Amino acid sequence: MLKTTQKWFLKSTLFSLTLFLSLLIVSGCGGEEGGSGDQSGEKRLKVVATTGMIADAAENILGDHAEVIGLMGPGVDPHLYKASQNDLKLLTDADIILYNGLHLEGKMAEVLEKLSSRKPVIAVGDYVDPSLRRSPPEFKGAYDPHIWFDVSLWRGAISGLVDTLARLDSVQGETYQQRGRAYLAQLDTLDTWVRAQIETIPESSRLLITAHDAFGYFGRAYKIEVRGLQGISTVDEPGLADRKRMVDLIVERKIKAVFVESSVRRSNIEALIESAKSEGHELKIGGELFSDAMGAKETPEGTYVGMVKANVNTIVEALK
C-alpha cells in the first residue's frame, strides 16, 4: 500500500514540511481571516474520514487541532457507497484522507487512488498485520475489512494511525501522542469489558446470526460462533440455497434469535424468519446491531465505544 512505500514516505515528509511552513505563516500573520482556523490563529487540519469509526478515532486523536468530517453517516453501507459531488469536493479540499481499506469502500477505490498522488490518503487497515487479518475462502486473496469488531485489533490499527498523524503534523505531534494514549487506554478498557460480557452467555447459546458476515473478527476475538446470511460484502444477495442452509442450522441448533443490522436492509433476515416458521421453528429478531456504520451523532451509539457497548448489550440480552 502507499503508506509503506518510499514514494508515500517522501510525499508525507513533504506534506509535513508544507504544513509546518503554513503554520508559521498563519502565526506570523496574526490569524488573518480565511481558511480553517480558530481564534488563536492556528491553522486547523481538514481531515476527511470515510466511516464513522475512523472519524471518531481521528476526533479523539486530533481534538481541536483539526476539523474532522465523516462521509458516511448512520445507516450507510460502505460496501455500496459511491462518492457524491459534494463528497468529491470535501475529499479534494481535505489535507488528509482516512479510510478503512481492505476493499471496504470498494466503489471509492478509483477516487482514493487518484487523490493519493496529491495528499496523504491513509488506509487504517494497513496497520493490521496481514497474519492477523481474516481471509474468508470466498474472498480469495482478499481480507475481511471489518477489523473494528475486534477491539484489540482496532486498537493496534489506531496506534499506528496516531504515530502517522503525529509525524505528518510535527507541530502538534506530541499533543496527538498524548491524546492517542488516552484513547487507546479507553479501548483497552472496552476490550476487557466485552470479553467479560460475552462470557456471561452460556457456551451452547453463543451463536450470532446476522444479515451479513461482518462479525467474524468479533467472533474470533470473543469466542462466539458467527454466521452471516450474506458474505463479508453486501454487494451479492443471498440465494435460496444460502437461506436453506441457514434455516437447517437454526432448526438443528434450536436457535431462538437472529439479528438485523442498521446498515443492511431487514428483508433478508425477515425472509429467514418466515422460512424457519415454515419448518415449524419460531425465530425472532434479537435486536438491531451496528455493523458497518455507527449510530447518530450526539448519541452514545454515535461513538465507537458506545456502538460496541450497544452491540454487546443487545447480543447478551438476546442470547443469554
Could you please describe the fold and organization of this structure?
The protein is an alpha/beta fold. The chain folds into two domains: 2-193, Nitrogenase molybdenum iron protein domain (Rossmann fold); 198-319, Nitrogenase molybdenum iron protein domain (Rossmann fold, 3-Layer(aba) Sandwich), CATH 3.40.50.1980. The protein contains ten helices and eight strands. The protein has helices spanning 6-28, 52-62, 85-93, 109-115, 151-168, 173-198, 216-222, 240-253, 267-278, 304-319; strands at residues 45-49, 66-70, 96-99, 121-123, 207-212, 225-230, 257-261, 284-289. The longest helix has 26 residues, at 173-198. Mean pLDDT is 87; it is low at 1-10 and 20-35.
Features:
single chain; 45% helix; 2 domains; Rossmann fold; alpha/beta; disordered N terminus; 320 residues; 10 helices; two-stranded parallel ribbon
